[in-house]
Write a structure and sequence with these properties.
By secondary structure, the chain is α/β, with parallel strands linked by helices. The chain contains 10 helices and 30 strands. The protein is globular.
Length: about 475
């Protein structure tokens, strides 16, 4: 018998979320999809690796915001996954994102390309079961169905919407009989007892041309604006920027409301693969117990006479005595303490932080840049100390500061320093001084990461005191 060829499949990773319920580890400029919450890879990297292993998979399309573009590209590079990063000028929910993804697929790969839309910040334990469900969904999508995945529920969850399975669509799917909004507990318990109901996991698989045809019929203005956003987009280094006015004109709407609840083409494929949306700190319940009293601990943690606690320590010793059913999360600049029942309310703390313009809502203790990262060590009146790492072959912008001078001490690797009209190398344990107002640049010409300690001094030490003259990453600020 002749071999069958898997249809070409474009994995689309939606990586624009903020993950406020996982504060203080997740921050606006470094949200949960980029964090190593499950294993040594980030959620984005695990999603990309799962997708790349699917039969017929094309290089992935990652959709994210401008502020996350370099992090997303670097994380794909780290795990050897090829892909294109498409930049939204602002988040407009999943329907406009699905539209530009389908149009991109038609433009780059042809109208019959399968588009697999998925969140970049979910976890799946059973990759084989996941791949099997995708294969079943692909078969239905090739028949013209727009497929969603019904997550096999494990408990009466009130934080998810539900899908009711309708008539069978052989060999492994169903029509969608009903979409159910997030239910109260009694309703969720009833749905679980009745069977045939699944969590709505927010993953979709469809032929690109089928989806665009349905969107054009159901939401003609959105389809037109998404097309204009893609056609008016511009390449920026390795990124594609959507046309901002056109994309912002798209109605802010989910794919469920815009298409799935209105179309006669909706289909459902069950998925029982250990799915988790990693939506709050209770995800730590998935970790193995560390003792006989139900505590799940990660990092440098000690407990005494404590039961059923979830604790994550990042930068220092955390100890609990005589408490139960608590969640404690520590980072270099913040500590969260809550009960299990109130885990979803962490977002309210983030709202308070934003209302007070506090940086803890936005910046991670380690701030990532396209050239590497920096983290604060100490600060006080008129001084600040940072640890800076620059990747091999990377360079900071040629810049100047109006309000601060800097001392650089090399602790690892080799630095190439530009200061006004001088250029010179510094090795380990060597240092230099950058006077206020002098043009300067730091580069790593070596094959290993460059690490320096930077001591800033002056009347104002904010990150916005940067005047850029030249930047290989095309930034004007930040």
């Amino acid at each position: 018998m002749p071999e069958t060829t898997a249809p070409r499949l474009l994995p689309v990773l939606l990586a624009g979320g903020s993950g406020t319920r996982l504060w203080p580890l997740s921050r606006e400029l470094y949200p949960k999809q980029f964090l190593n919450l499950v294993d040594e890879h980030s959620l984005l990297q695990n999603t990309a690796l799962r997708a790349a292993a699917l039969p017929g998979a094309l290089p992935a399309l990652v959709i994210c915001g401008d502020q996350h573009r370099f992090i997303a590209a670097e994380q794909l590079r780290q795990v050897g996954v090829q892909g294109c990063v498409l930049l939204e000028p602002e988040g407009r929910n999943t329907a406009p994102a699905a539209a530009v993804a389908a149009l991109h697929a038609i433009q780059r790969h042809g109208p019959e390309t399968l588009v697999f839309l998925m969140a970049a910040d979910h976890a799946i334990r059973d990759s084989a079961a996941f791949a099997a469900a995708v294969e079943h969904a692909a078969a239905l999508a090739m028949q013209g169905r727009i497929v969603t995945f019904g997550i096999q529920p494990t408990h009466p969850e009130t934080g998810f919407g539900y899908l009711q399975a309708g008539d069978a669509l052989p060999p492994h799917g169903h029509a969608v009989a009903r979409f159910i909004e997030k239910p109260p507990l009694a309703t969720a318990q009833d749905l679980l007892a009745r069977g045939g109901h699944y969590w709505n996991g927010g993953m979709f698989l469809f032929r690109a041309d089928v989806f665009i045809d349905e969107l054009t019929r159901l939401e003609p203005a959105m389809a037109q604006q998404a097309r204009a956003a893609l056609e008016g987009g511009k390449s920026d280094l390795d990124f594609v920027r959507l046309d901002a006015p056109s994309f912002r004109a798209c109605r802010n709407e989910s794919i469920d409301y815009a298409v799935m609840e209105k179309t006669a083409l909706a289909a459902l494929v069950p998925l029982d693969a250990g799915w988790d949306d990693v939506g709050s700190w209770t995800y730590l319940d998935k970790l193995p117990q560390c003792d006989a009293r139900g505590n799940r601990l990660r990092g440098d943690v000690l407990v005494e006479d404590a039961d059923n606690n979830l604790v994550q320590a990042t930068s220092r010793l955390v100890s609990l005595v005589g408490v139960r059913d608590h969640i404690v999360v520590e980072t270099g600049d913040a500590v969260l303490v809550t009960t299990r029942e109130r885990a979803q309310d962490v977002r309210k703390i983030v709202q308070q932080l934003k209302g007070s313009n506090r940086t803890e809502a936005v910046l991670h203790p380690r701030v990532y840049r396209p050239w590497g990262w920096y983290e604060g060590i100490s600060s006080g009146e008129r001084f600040q100390v940072k640890r800076i790492q620059v990747g091999p072959g990377q360079k900071l912008s040629l810049q100047m500061h109006h309000h601060r001078a800097e001392h650089w001490i090399v602790v690892k690797g080799t630095a190439r320093v530009t200061c006004e009209d001088r250029e010179f190398l510094l090795g380990e344990n060597e240092s230099t001084y950058i006077p206020l107002g002098h043009k300067h640049r730091l580069e790593n010409p070596g094959a290993i990461p460059l690490e320096i300690i930077e001591v800033q001094s002056g009347g104002y030490l904010g990150e916005d005191d940067i005047v850029r003259f030249e930047d290989v990453y095309g930034r004007s600020s930040g």
